[in-house]
Amino acid sequence: MLLFGTACAPATAPAPAVPRVPDLVDAKWRVGDYVAAGRYEADIARVAAEARQHLTTRLAGGGKLAIVLDVDETALSNLPQLRANDWGFIVNGPCADLPRGPCGLVAWIALAQAEPIRPVLELARFARERGVAVFFLTGRPERLRAATEANLKAAGYEWTGVLLKPDTLSVPSAVDFKAVERKKLVEQGYVIAVNVGDQMSDLDGGFAERTYKLPNPFYFVP
Known about the structure:
39% of the residues lie in helices and 15% in strands. By secondary structure, it is α/β, with parallel strands linked by helices. The chain has 2 domains: 25-77 and 115-213, HAD superfamily/HAD-like (Rossmann fold, 3-Layer(aba) Sandwich), CATH 3.40.50; 79-113, no CATH class. The termini are far apart. 32% of the residues are buried.
């Protein structure tokens, strides 16, 4: 009840809501659940099927066709290394106690134990069986070529070429390296019908008819 003669305090505006920032524990749980529930594999399979469908259609048009595939989280899975680090991204350091971490990425690559991402392996085999050139284009440095090629071979891949980043090259974005390498392939007469990667920086920059983005909830590469 309002009483006349009684002073009323001015209404105060509600404090603005504080935006909720996702906490690290929740983010890690979501990543783990996405993988464990099979949604990660299902999303990869869906995208790879779309790429294969386009390549099937494109074969009828002829030409010197090629597909370009990234390596990490595209052709090969680093899940054991990522899990060992509790989904953290650790580049340097040993990797000697799997499945426990820490496990440095460079040491993990040297082990050449990454398993193939099966739908991408099937896409690569489908292309090779039909005379389509298969190129791997990766931001891994040239000094890791031997381990990279050994791992790709052990995983069941065959290829026309494996393109790695020069050891001395420093660029702000993977686009600045990968687009140039795709341009070189086009200048050699290849028609890149399909370009597959897990980062937009694998795909941006042109020189491919179609690009296909695989999921990667683990890390971002500019």
